[in-house]
Amino acid sequence: MKKKNYLLFLLISILVSCNSKEEVFTTHDVWVMGFKALSMDSDRDHCSTRFLFFKKSILSEIEPKSYTANDFSEFGKIKDPIFFNLADNGFLKTKDGNIIYPVFDIYVSEKSETYGTVTIPVGKYVVFAVSRDVNYPARSQAALKYCMKEIEVKERTSELILSPTFPTTYSMYGLVPWVDVSEKFSYNWK
């Protein structure tokens, strides 16, 4: 009798341990940190950055724009509504006036020594990285800029790392191209 129970126990143990179903993850970690570059070829420094994750479907409802400024005076007077809504209020306003809040919102200080981490459900998103580089009494050259990137959060063996670099220039503001910290700038700026 003990032998039959022992064999039954072994058989059940083998069946349970040989289950072919692998664990399916429904969320994934995303690491985030912003950077700024003093010149196109210089090393990158940390930049206080707010990361806002929206469902990808919002792209058809907004009109992000890039702007140029001729000098510091013009740069200091800018009024980019998308930048200010994202930076100060944490939302996007659609073309028809509706307000859309992000699925996730995380701020990473330039003083942080580690990447910020957010755990996000698997899916497709658009990430807005907003420079919060503030240098009083004048606005920082890295300020008043945001970049965006479409991402797909899915199962992977390593973390998804987002590390945009903001150019330090008064000649551009609003939407700037996403350039990862490990990439060279694909556009010229002064």
Structure report:
With 190 residues, the protein is an alpha+beta fold. It has one domain: Immunoglobulin-like (Sandwich), CATH 2.60.40. The strands form four sheets. It has a six-stranded mixed beta sheet, with helices on one face. The protein has a three-stranded mixed beta sheet with strand order 9-1-12, with no helix packed on it. Strand 6 and strand 7 form a beta hairpin. It starts with a helix and ends in a 15-residue tail after the last strand.
CATH architecture: Sandwich
Number of domains: 1
Total beta-strand segments: 14
Q: Strand order within the widest sheet?
A: 5-14-11-10-4-8
Query: Rg to the nearest angstrom?
Result: 23 Å
- Which whole number gives the mean pLDDT? 83
Structural class: alpha+beta
Tertiary shape:
globular
Main sheet characteristics = 6 strands, mixed
As residue ranges, the low-confidence spans are none
- Named CATH topology: Immunoglobulin-like
Helicity, in percent? 10-25%
So what's the CATH class?
A: Mainly Beta
Helix-strand string? HEEEEEHHEEEEEEEEE
- Count of helical segments? 3
The rounded distance between the terminal residues' Cα atoms is 85 Å
Strand proportion: 35-45%
Organism: Prevotella intermedia
Protein name: Lipoprotein
Keywords: Signal
